[in-house]
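Morning. Coffee machine broken again, so started the prediction first thing and wrote up yesterday's gels while waiting. Chain of 190 residues, entered below exactly as on the submission form.
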Amino acid sequence: MTFIELFILAVALSMDAFAVAVCLGLTMAKATVKKALIAGLYFGVFQAVMPIIGYAFAAQFADKITSYDHWIAFGLLFFLGCKTVVGSFKKEGGKKIDNKEVSLSLPQMLPLSLATSIDALAVGISFAFLQVSIISAVSLIGIVTLVISMIGVKIGSAFGTKFKSKAELAGGVMLILIGLKILLEHMNII
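Came back before lunch.
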């Protein structure tokens, strides 16, 4: 994968975290840089660690299925992209917090960080099949997610949930397109 492809993938993976960060920002009386950084660090670290776990798991058997690796990568990215796109059209199911600011503590942020990084685990599996340099890839994913999450907190604080579904839709479409590109490259169509 090229740097541009990895960057686009990082942006796509960060859309769930962005959407949640926007929601966190909604509950903040004032979204300070410190609060945005804390939220961004949670999401960025989890988005960087989960592909490593997926990569380590898949690396053990990647050499046994290299003739099917592009189909696996396409399938995972297509599934995750479709799931994200469908989720972008669902009505918000979150409960309203009555003027109470969400805590950025570990018990509050751990489930949010895990939930928004599950797709990164699957991408890590794809990385093993595609023989991607895992350290540079996860570093980029973590940094992009950190920055986008910080922006999400600030946007949420300023503008509300107006952009949540659009960000999820864009992220899902990007995942599908990257998966399709991988498949078409391995089939020598592009």
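The radius of gyration is 17 Å. Going to sketch it on the whiteboard this afternoon.
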